[in-house]
Each structure stands twice: as C-alpha cells, then as structure tokens.
Write a structure and sequence with these properties.
Blueprint (H helix, E strand, L loop, with lengths): L2 E8 L16 H13 L6 E2 L8 E10 L6 H11 L4 E9 L11 E9 L11 E2 L6 H9 L3 E4 L14 E12 L2 E8 L6 H13 L5 H10 L14 E7 L7
Parallel strand pairs: 3-10, 5-6
Antiparallel strand pairs: 1-3, 1-4, 2-3, 5-9, 5-10, 7-8, 8-9
Helix pairs in contact: 3-4, 3-5
Length: 248
C-alpha cells in the first residue's frame, strides 16, 4: 500500500501535545479523526515525535498508508477544511513503503521565544521573562551543549529511553529588540529537554549560576541540579529533516 508523509503545523495552546492523554485531546487524534471521515475508513498515523502539552509546531511530519489514489492538492484542501483552525496540512509527499516519520528523521530543530516586556499580542506564543539577562553569557554556556553528550540532567526523570546521548549541532540565542529566540538543533531530543535547557540557560543569563556551573550540571547527569522547566507556550518545533533518498 502506498505510504505518504504529511507536513503539519499547529498552534498547541488547546492540545495535550501530539499524543492524546487521559481527559485531554492530542493533535494526532484530531488528524486521525479528520482523515478517517474524509477517506471513510479508520486511519492511524505515526508522527515524527511527541510534543508536550501547549507546545507549538511550525513543521512536523506524520506518515500513513492510503490505498485510494488522490490529487495531493485536493486532499490538502479537503483535509484542511475538516481540521480546526489551529491545525493545518502544508504538503503531502509519497515515500518508500518501509519509511517511518519517526525513525528516519535525522535532525530536529526547536525554538524558544521570550519577550522581555509585557506584550498582549504574544500571550500564549512567548514567555514573558521580566529579569534582565546577559545574552553573551548565555551563548557562551549554550556553546557547551554542542557535540555528542549525555544529557540526562535535562531529561524528565521517568522516561522510557535506552540512553541519554544526543548530538547537538547548534544551540544559540538571538536578540531582536525586546524579543529573545533560542534555537537548538540535534539528531534527537529527550522528553522535556529543551525547556530544561532554556530554564538553566536563563539561570546563567541572570547570574544565578556561572558558565562553569552550567558545564558541571551537564557532567553531573542530575536533573535536580539543572534549572526549572520553562513554560511550554514559548516552545516551537520548527523543522524536521529526512534523507532525500526516502522520497519517491
């Protein structure tokens, strides 16, 4: 049966992340329901990864097998008309039958958005952080993340992974007026990892801990020594990359 990759974007404010949880709806369930109604058969989808409750997504992918032939533009248009306003399909591409949206991803990028002033237009879209921060110091600490390291100190304690190794290719802050954006790219991320990293880097930026302390936290592998998780509403999954060879 032909397999397809769907590119999706969503505002995560009213969802329990990608996967549904008890008493809360995930994006995955909403999309499966819309596709099932549209194609008149039960459709199950597999996403490129999970996002936490309230996290936004500029680009994510999921795969599913569809027997019926269709025009991609028509299916995108019809599916978007079935989906709520805060979820949209951007593209559909045919892939090889054994390809997984989750396991064949080679790189993922996240951004965390902060506003340094109270801004009603950014409610639910960026964290309002009222303490002054030193972005140069935060970037010195962020540079220590690059490379392959054990990041257990930034992982949720109860998690089902086999190891805590991640290869971070990029981690840096940029400031534009009263807005701060942290961008991080890696081959994989642990649960809660980006929010814990941002919280700890903000501790560096305010002088609560030093750059050397930050390095020692990584070496310690202890979640208790790292900073608090920042709120989810400032976090965005912005890009997922795959090898070109998977596409038909």
């Amino acid at each position: 049966m032909p397999r397809y990759f769907f590119e999706i974007t969503y505002n995560g404010t009213y969802y329990a992340g990608w996967q549904s949880q008890a008493n809360a709806t995930g994006v995955q369930a909403v999309v499966e329901n819309a596709l099932s109604k549209l194609l008149r058969k039960e459709i199950k989808i597999t996403g490129s990864g999970r996002t936490d409750t309230g996290v936004h997504c500029a680009q994510q992918f999921f795969h599913t097998d569809i027997e019926k032939s269709f025009r991609q533009e028509d299916l995108i248009h019809r599916l978007n008309s079935f989906l709520p306003k805060d979820i949209a399909i951007r593209s559909i591409r045919k892939v090889k039958p054994d390809v997984s949206a989750r396991y064949h991803a080679v790189e993922r990028s996240y951004q965390y958005h902060i506003t340094l002033v109270k801004d009603p237009l950014l409610i639910g879209l960026a964290l309002h952080y009222f303490k002054p921060v030193n972005i140069q110091t935060m970037n010195r600490a962020a540079a220590l993340l690059c490379g392959e390291h054990d990041f257990e100190c930034f992982s949720k304690v109860k998690t089902d992974v086999n190891h805590f190794l991640c290869n971070i290719k990029k981690a840096s802050w940029k400031q534009d007026g009263n807005k701060l954006v942290f961008t991080i790219t890696a081959n994989r991320f642990l649960r809660g990892m980006v929010r814990a990293i941002v919280g700890t880097l903000l501790d560096v930026g305010t002088g609560k801990i030093s750059v050397n302390d930050f390095q020692n936290i990584i070496k310690s592998k202890s979640r208790k020594k790292a900073g608090a998780n920042v709120d989810p509403h400032g976090l965005y999954l912005v890009q997922v990359k795959y090898p070109k060879s998977i596409f038909m």
